[in-house]
Recover the amino acids of this structure.
């Protein structure tokens, strides 16, 4: 009995691409608030998946369900094919949650030492400190750390047990640009070593640059799930802004235009490809001015996606 | 449900007893260090009983006696009880309420920490601080108050008072589960200070008004202090077994309340 368990731990039983964690038709309410509504969501081995959404979308709820900190009202939560509250699973997962207060009088290395002791094969302290960018701060008390450094300690506690799967809830919130990039590098390294990472974020750039796959969540429902590139492609590829005498209707007739709207003195035109539309515009309006072409970033894709689903879900706003 | 049980039994197979013991030890060690460095805790828990003792036991009344027992000896028992109560109530309730209310307990619960390690660490830490308070009182009394007691009695007194930390740790867990992060310390003071007074920890019991003495009979610090006083040859010479029974029953009631709070918390997170 113990021998077989020993074996499964030596060689993680989940092959690359297999589902390591899933929400199956999961709903979760807080009183009258429907935090998650029949959500289906998978995390596959070896991938870095971002759960992207605004504050209050249900990201933290999803993470807490996957960590077995609370059960769903409906549906099923599975981690490593079993119950997420299984203590055996917890030895293979690491978690970073948003915390209001961490014991402040303990030193960084003491916090790490304690959490490392919970695991079977923790990483050496030096490696943990290096991976979290805390080399010089090991002897510092938690109270004497800056906001970004505190965030890195929580990251260190998540990785110190060398877990197979990491659930990171808003890992870079409150970090400055440099600290954020450092943490991104570390998260990438984890995935490079075969770890699976689920992170939640409301930074669109973070999801865009880091994730293999992005699930966009809004008001408790997943509204899109694919690669960052595919999500971008779901909306019109380019945004053209210009000042023109042409009226909106005639702009809409130009081939390739997907959306037109007024934006103060100018118009904003969305199109799959910019060049043919710009050519047509210049041909019809020689006086056209203030031409700007930008590609639709994930931010726009995201806004477009939430706008689409917002029709039926946004009434309370 | 059956998968749950299977999973739980798996843990027992997986983690060696040595590893589990190491986790409990580390948890207790860091809980102790955490509080030792917390001036709020050490100042209120250590300095108040010691200051009172120096003032009322050594400076003012050191030559007096209460019912045949010298004041410096008598007050080791009562301020000892007072110190144990403070160390245990603050040691468990304040930390638990803050950890619960501000998310740290969730980080711990998401980790593979054995859940009991967290609670045991708080209880052990409270007992260690209780022992420190009592030992400090004894050292002061022997050095400056002319306290003379056989070593066996000193040991028995220390053991009794440290064991007396348990009912108050249990009470602290109960308070910690129902109080919020900021309301926990004032809540403890509201329980701890009147209880100490009514139990005769500040003013010797026989000098208290009659109705207060009647209230004292249901208060756990009264029973612990009477056990301690019995060892130094003072107190009311009631049956020690009764005192222990009351303290034991009180511990069970508090653990029961703490358990309700624990379940309520699970359901709240779960609900």
């Amino acid at each position: 009995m113990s021998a077989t368990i020993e074996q499964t731990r030596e060689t993680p039983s989940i092959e690359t691409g297999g589902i390591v964690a899933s929400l199956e038709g999961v709903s979760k309410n807080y009183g009258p608030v429907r935090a998650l509504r029949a959500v289906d969501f998978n995390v596959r081995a070896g991938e870095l998946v971002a759960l992207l959404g605004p504050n209050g979308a249900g990201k933290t709820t999803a993470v807490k369900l996957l960590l077995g900190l609370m059960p769903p009202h409906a549906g099923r939560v599975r981690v490593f094919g079993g119950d997420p509250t299984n203590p055996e699973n917890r030895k293979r997962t690491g978690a970073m949650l948003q915390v209001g207060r961490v014991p402040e009088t303990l030193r960084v290395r003491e916090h790490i030492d304690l959490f490392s002791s919970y695991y079977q094969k923790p990483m050496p302290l030096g490696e943990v400190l290096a991976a979290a960018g805390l080399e010089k701060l090991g002897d510092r008390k938690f109270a004497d750390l800056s906001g970004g450094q505190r965030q890195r300690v929580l990251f260190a506690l998540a990785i110190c047990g060398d877990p197979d799967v990491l659930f990171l809830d808003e890992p870079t919130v409150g970090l400055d640009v440099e600290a954020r990039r450092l943490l991104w590098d570390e998260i990438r390294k984890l995935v490079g070593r075969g770890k699976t990472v689920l992170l939640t974020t409301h930074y669109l750039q973070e999801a865009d640059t880091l994730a293999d796959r992005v699930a966009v969540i809004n008001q408790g429902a997943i509204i899109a799930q694919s690669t960052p590139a595919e999500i971008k492609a779901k909306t019109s590829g380019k945004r053209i802004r210009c000042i023109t005498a042409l009226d909106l209707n005639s702009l809409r007739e130009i081939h390739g235009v997907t959306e037109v709207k007024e934006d103060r003195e100018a118009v904003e035109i969305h199109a799959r490809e910019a060049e043919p539309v710009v050519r047509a515009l210049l041909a019809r309006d020689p006086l056209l001015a203030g031409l700007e072409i930008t590609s639709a970033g994930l931010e726009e894709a995201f806004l477009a996606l939430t706008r689409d689903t917002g029709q039926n879900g946004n009434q309370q706003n | 449900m059956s998968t749950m049980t299977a999973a739980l039994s798996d843990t027992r197979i997986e983690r060696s007893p040595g590893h589990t013991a190491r986790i409990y030890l580390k948890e207790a060690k860091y809980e102790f260090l955490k509080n030792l460095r917390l001036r709020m805790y050490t100042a209120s828990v250590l300095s108040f009983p010691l200051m009172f003792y120096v003032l009322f036991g050594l400076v003012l009344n050191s030559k007096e006696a209460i019912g045949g027992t010298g004041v410096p000896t008598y007050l080791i028992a009562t301020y000892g009880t007072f110190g144990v109560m403070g160390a245990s109530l603050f040691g468990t309730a304040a930390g638990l309420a803050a950890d619960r209310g501000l998310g740290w307990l969730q980080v711990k619960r998401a980790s593979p920490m054995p859940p009991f390690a967290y609670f045991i660490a708080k209880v052990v830490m409270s007992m260690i601080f209780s022992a420190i308070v009592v030992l400090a009182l004894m050292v002061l009394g022997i050095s400056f108050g002319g306290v003379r007691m056989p070593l066996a009695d000193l040991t028995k007194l220390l053991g009794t008072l440290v064991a007396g930390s348990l009912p108050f740790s249990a009470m602290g867990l109960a308070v910690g589960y129902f109080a919020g992060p900021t309301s926990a310390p004032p809540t403890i003071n509201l329980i701890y200070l009147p209880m100490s007074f009514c139990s005769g920890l500040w003013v010797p019991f026989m000098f208290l008004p009659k109705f207060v003495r009647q209230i004292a009979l249901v208060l756990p610090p009264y029973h612990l202090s009477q056990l301690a006083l019995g060892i130094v040859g003072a107190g009311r010479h009631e049956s020690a077994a009764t005192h222990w029974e009351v303290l034991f029953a009180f511990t069970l009631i508090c653990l029961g309340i703490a358990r309700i709070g624990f379940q309520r918390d699970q359901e709240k997170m779960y609900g």
In short: Chain A has two domains: 2-226, 236-295. Chain A touches chain B at residues 1-2, 5, 9, 64, 67-71, 82-83, 85-91, 93, 95, 97-103, 105-106, 110, 113-115, 117-120, 141, 154, 157, 161, 167 (CB under 8 Å). The first strand of chain A starts at residue 19 and ends at 30. The domain at 236-295 of chain A is CATH 3.30.70 (Alpha-Beta Plaits).
